[in-house]
Amino acid sequence: MKTKIAVLGAGSWGSILASVLVQNGHEVWLWTRHREQAQELNELHTNQRYMKDYHYPHALHATTNLAQSVHNAALILFTVPTPAIRAVAQQVLTHLKQTKVARPLIVHASKGLEQGTHLRISEILHQTIPADFRSGIVALSGPSHAEEVARQDLTLITAASNQVTAAQQVQQLFMNDYFRVYTNTDLIGVELGAAFKNIIALGAGALHGLGYGDNAKAALMTRGLAEITRLGVALGAKPLTFIGLSGVGDLIVTCTSIHSRNWRAGNQLGQGQPLAAVVANMGMVIEGVKTCQAAYELAQQQQVEMPITEAIYHVLYEKADIKQEIKLLMRREGKAEL
Ligand SMILES: NC(=O)c1ccc[n+]([C@@H]2O[C@H](COP(=O)([O-])OP(=O)(O)OC[C@H]3O[C@@H](n4cnc5c(N)ncnc54)[C@H](O)[C@@H]3O)[C@@H](O)[C@H]2O)c1
Ligand SMILES: O=P(O)(O)OC[C@H](O)CO
């Protein structure tokens, strides 16, 4: 059945998920703040800044009018970076209050934690859009670089919600020959795995930039997974979720892919570039930088040991020397692995 869907945020991920949904036969309205970008998408069917040389389906509607995109939408998909989620959700609520139609499903595909509050994205959405104006809240997450979904490479991800029926609805709308969706009811674990893997990817990139080899990268991913699982479980996640698509799956892709902005940022830091220059030059969101601060603070609150996250925090926020931090990590007292 053809469903009206609003996709909010026309960066790499939002625009490609919108494209998948159009290919699946849905009526998709992609919202962007930028008039020239909407015009480029509607007239040339390209989005050169975010997805070079990709051609979007002609049936995709781009708009700068948020009311037009969410009006009568059965599903609203948030794909703006984490720091923008609350403000965009507040604008969406204003429009939902004006149109008394069936309550839309709220889905997000972003990966981070809110600075200061440390809230997961579903918690921000839950707080901002009251239950009277929506149905379920779902997080869509897993190993999925937009560049590969764009060329219809095989991609498997997870739709997570406290309400399994909401996750199943999302599964039905997104699934096709190259895009496979599993459901999961551990919303906490799925969102935390998605947010925390970006921190470890910064570290994996830094190791590469410094010239370390595969032993070091495999060790970082393994011990990184151990510590993000520890913090996730302390925050209410199920441990098994961290060995699923949104856990180790996304950790692997983000720590090894040249498409990853977090990996590329870490690589540049490892090569000696200052953080401010790395962020300015990326031109796209590097979620791991802010998430590292949130995870560092949460680990302290929860008294969870996260030596890798702490080392990356020292490099990002206290200008610590990366090689010195690696030396300190290696010279910690001997431990049992499990
Ligand atoms: N790119 C990927 O392959 C990918 C895959 C999975 C998940 N994600 C996640 O999706 C989210 C978005 O990533 P992306 O790669 O599309 O980022 P991006 O930097 O490519 O695009 C972000 C988009 O959001 C818009 N935006 C930023 N601030 C805004 C605001 N305050 N109000 C409205 N719009 C705003 C920007 O103009 C841009 O169009 C991130 O959380 C990321 O971790 C990305
Ligand atoms: O490019 P990154 O580092 O933001 O990663 C994108 C996705 O999260 C990979 O699954």
UniProtKB/TrEMBL annotation:
Transmembrane segments: none annotated. It holds the Pfam family NAD_Gly3P_dh_N. It comes from the Bacteria. Substrate binds at residues 111, 261-262. Pathway: Membrane lipid metabolism; glycerophospholipid metabolism. The active site is at 197 (proton acceptor). This is Glycerol-3-phosphate dehydrogenase [NAD(P)+]. It comes from Bombilactobacillus mellifer.
